[in-house]
Amino acid sequence: MSDDERSMRGASSMTEIRARHPRLRTALAADARVTAAHRFERHEFRSKADVALQALRLMWVSDAFLAQSLYRVKARLQALGVPLLPRVAHRLAMTSAQLSIGDPVVVHPGVYVVHGQVVVDGLVEIHSGTVIGPFVTIGLRGDFVGPTIGPNVSIGTGAKVLGRVRVGAGAQIGANAVVIDDVLEATTVVGAPARAVAAR
């Protein structure tokens, strides 16, 4: 395969990935609801205006939510083919909460980032209901394909989820665990390398 063919295939893949990013309004509303719920705040919003006001309030009080919102803006701008501004949004997310989410990552609506200091990169997919603690790394191990995180997964502080692994729905990853193998649904894993300790 020539360099030109590789370049065209890569561009096509990125276009397909960007098409899978959720709409900005949908993603921000879902992220705001789950963030407010985890903060034990009102999370049933009454109108579009209420959603917008609550999202702005959460951006003001939570650096992590601000950075997550900037990631959402970056992803949407990239999907629309806007140049330069996605990189600005990415830099602002890194500056505000040290949140670095790579271009090929797909984050479904309704994910809660607790405190920032999070790195996610590679061909990674994170489903709704996931809770990501601080100092978490979700990324690569040997090739460009990273983890798929199922819905309602909890990833503890300092944990690492690396490589071509699948984390099943409702799984819990303990603090500082290093996940390099698949995790079954509703299973708790701890340690380095992570091992199952319980199924819920």
Question: How are the SSEs ordered, and which strands pair?
Answer:
Elements: H1 3-19, H2 24-38, H3 48-61, H4 63-79, H5 85-97, E1 99-101, E2 106-107, E3 112-113, E4 118-120, E5 123-126, E6 131-132, E7 137-139, E8 145-149, E9 154-155, E10 160-162, E11 166-167, E12 172-173, E13 178-179, E14 187-190, E15 195-199
Helix pairs in contact: 2-3, 2-4, 3-4, 4-5
Question: Can you give a write-up of this model?
Answer:
It is a single chain. With 200 residues, this protein is of the alpha/beta class. A 6-stranded mixed beta sheet has the order 3-6-9-12-14-15. Strands 1-4-7-10-13 form a 5-stranded parallel beta sheet. A 4-stranded parallel beta sheet has the order 2-5-8-11, with no helix packed on it. It has 5 helices and 15 strands. Helices cover 38% and strands 22% of the residues. Strand 14 (187-190) and strand 15 form a beta hairpin.
Low-confidence stretches: 1-11
Please give the count of helices. 5
Helical fraction equals 25-40%
Q: Order of strands across the biggest sheet?
A: 3-6-9-12-14-15
Strand content: 15-25%
Order of helices and strands: HHHHHEEEEEEEEEEEEEEE
Largest sheet: 6 strands, mixed
Inertia-based shape? globular
Instruction: Say what oligomer this is.
Output: single chain
Number of domains: 2
Whole-number mean pLDDT? 91
Radius of gyration: 17 Å
Number of strands: 15
Distance between the termini: 48 Å
Provide the structure class: alpha/beta
